[in-house]
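[recover] target loaded
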């Protein structure tokens, strides 16, 4: 259970940070677009047809992916450690 919480916090933080860098890179290469297409507040910020919504979803997906990768690595490490001790 401790590894689940640790992986969730570390994986989501790292993944969402990488997702925001991905979004900044897209903005640098593609441009921001019209102000009306930028996004909004509240639930409008999660509309994937706007730039902010796309980046928010990218951050969430990157966070979940990093959590899964990190959790699988920690579980595999635990299995290898158990095999070496026994």
């Amino acid at each position: 259970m401790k590894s689940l919480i640790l992986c969730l916090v570390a994986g989501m933080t790292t993944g969402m940070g990488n997702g925001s860098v991905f979004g900044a890179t897209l903005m640098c290469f593609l441009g921001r677009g019209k102000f009306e297409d930028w996004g909004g507040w509240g639930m409008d910020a999660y509309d994937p047809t706007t730039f902010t919504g796309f980046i928010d979803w990218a951050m969430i997906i990157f966070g979940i992916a990093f959590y899964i990768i990190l959790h699988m690595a920690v579980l595999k490490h635990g299995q290898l450690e158990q095999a070496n001790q026994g």
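[recover] notes: DSSP finds two helices and no strands in the chain.
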